[in-house]
């Protein structure tokens, strides 16, 4: 290497130096050489992986709260979590489902709410039992009054025969109208059986949800696809309720008009047909008129 060529064959490199023949300039080392490469054998290569955060749905506290308050979501999070083995997932799933099954059986075996049942029976009995009316005692009549005899005057010169006194007149007692006969209170309905009381509760639930005719409500309670009460219990339960079936027909008519189109006669036929709501024709006509369709 020289600042000037020393003979034939010398060549000038990019750094301005002259080199003898068959001599190549050594390349500068790359800045990338000598740097550690992240690999499985390099202990430092796992630093980036160690810095990764666990997803929120794989955290233990999220899984525990999900299983406690909404176990279907908790089971889903359990099975997508890769930190648990299949055996652990199966055991936890079995325990959670067993607890849910036990809770459901205990809830179905709990006795009905006696206070609500007694309150409903008292209300229905109060509605059907009228207070007997009392009649006022007849007015007393006053005693008859007697008039005094008129005074007699004697003639001045002759003695007259003693004057006769007129008989006192008596006024007849006023006639009073006979008191109205006492009306017997209506007979109270016999107490409902336990099955009939349950049918009453079911009927009230149906009436709170939708409009029903009398026959439609009895069919719903006694149908094998409904509550499966016998027809006698269903009829007794429906008849023990005080229901405005005209208002129920109006509610059913408005429900039909919200989901479909009807003519006036078509709506009446739907409400009164045996395949429909089984209202009477008068109730169906009243309901159609209340909707403004007729």
Automatic annotation (TrEMBL):
Chain intervals with Pro residues compositional bias: 170-189
Cited InterPro entries: Ltp-like_HTH (IPR011434), WH-like_DNA-bd_sf (IPR036388)
Composition bias type Low complexity, residue spans: 126-169
Disordered: annotated span: 30-49, 108-194
Stretches assigned to the Putative host cell surface-exposed lipoprotein Ltp-like HTH region domain: 197-241, 244-287
Transmembrane segments: 61-80, 87-106
UniProt KW keywords: Membrane, Transmembrane, Transmembrane helix
Protein name: Putative host cell surface-exposed lipoprotein Ltp-like HTH region domain-containing protein
Annotated source species: Candidatus Neomicrothrix parvicella RN1
């Amino acid at each position: 290497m020289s600042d000037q060529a020393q003979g034939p064959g010398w060549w000038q490199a990019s750094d301005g130096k002259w080199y003898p023949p068959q001599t190549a300039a050594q390349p500068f080392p790359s800045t990338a050489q000598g740097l550690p490469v992240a690999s499985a054998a390099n202990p430092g290569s796992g630093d980036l992986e160690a810095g990764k955060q666990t997803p929120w749905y794989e955290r233990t506290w999220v899984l525990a709260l999900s299983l406690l308050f909404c176990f279907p979501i908790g089971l889903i999070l359990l099975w997508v979590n890769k930190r648990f083995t299949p055996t652990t997932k199966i055991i936890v799933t079995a325990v959670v489902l067993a607890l849910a099954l036990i809770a459901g059986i205990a809830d179905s075996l709990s006795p009905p709410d006696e206070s609500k049942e007694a309150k409903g029976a008292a209300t229905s009995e109060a509605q059907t039992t009228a207070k007997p009316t009392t009649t006022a005692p007849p007015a007393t009549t006053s005693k008859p009054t007697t008039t005094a005899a008129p005074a007699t005057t004697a003639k001045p010169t002759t003695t007259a025969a003693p004057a006769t006194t007129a008989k006192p007149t008596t006024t007849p007692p006023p006639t009073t109208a006979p008191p109205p006969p006492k009306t017997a209170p209506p007979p109270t309905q016999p107490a409902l059986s336990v099955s009939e009381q349950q049918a009453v509760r079911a009927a009230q639930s149906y009436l709170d949800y939708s409009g029903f005719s009398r026959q439609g409500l009895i069919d719903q309670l006694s149908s094998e696809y409904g509550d499966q009460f016998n027809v006698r219990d269903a009829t007794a339960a429906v008849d023990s309720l005080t229901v405005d079936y005209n208002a129920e027909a109006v509610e059913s008519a408005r429900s039909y008009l919200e989901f479909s189109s009807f003519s006036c006669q078509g709506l009446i036929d739907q409400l009164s047909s045996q395949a429909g709501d089984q209202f009477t024709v008068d109730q169906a006509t009243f309901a159609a008129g209340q909707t403004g369709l007729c």
